[in-house]
Amino acid sequence: MKHFTFKHVARLLAELLVLLAIYQLGCQLAVGFAWPIPGGVVGLGLLLAAFASGLVKPAALQLGAGVLMAEMLLFFIPALMSLLDYGGLMRNDGWRILLVIGLSTLSVMLVTAFTVEMVCRWRVRHEA
To answer: Where are the transmembrane segments (predicted)?
Structure first.
């Protein structure tokens, strides 16, 4: 079993609080400006802006983000369990729902891949 020091736990909690604060700020902005974008997406944009500007280094939030990523399945269990309440919907329109999920996942993966490729090429041009 891994032994955690007080310093390790304090850093983890601090990073999680920073991530939560960014998420909350994104939610407040989305509601305050009546944007049709979820607050979590706005928060991710804020985090990306903080990384891009150099205000926050990605390594500064690595521990907290790693814990959240490792426990991601726990965040999806309630959503999966709610499907039991909608058996009829899944029988009638399940294929459409799966098609939308598949296409949207593919779209996100493609946009992410092209964005990363574009940023890498831009970085190589500007660092050379």
So the answer is: 12-31, 37-56, 63-83, 95-116
Q: How many residues does the chain have?
A: 128
d(CA 19, CA 46): 11
Count of CB atoms situated within 10 Å of the CB of 47: 20
User: Against a cut of 0.85, is the pTM above it?
Assistant: no
Residue 62: what are its φ and ψ, rounded to 5°?
-65, -40
Q: How far apart are CA 66 and CA 71, in angstroms?
A: 9
Q: Which two tokens stand for residue 51?
A: 């990384």
Q: Which sequence spans correspond to the domains of the chain? A: 1-75, 82-128
Q: How far apart are CA 28 and CA 121, in angstroms?
A: 35
> In angstroms, what CA-CA distances link 37 with 24, 31, 99?
14, 9, 22
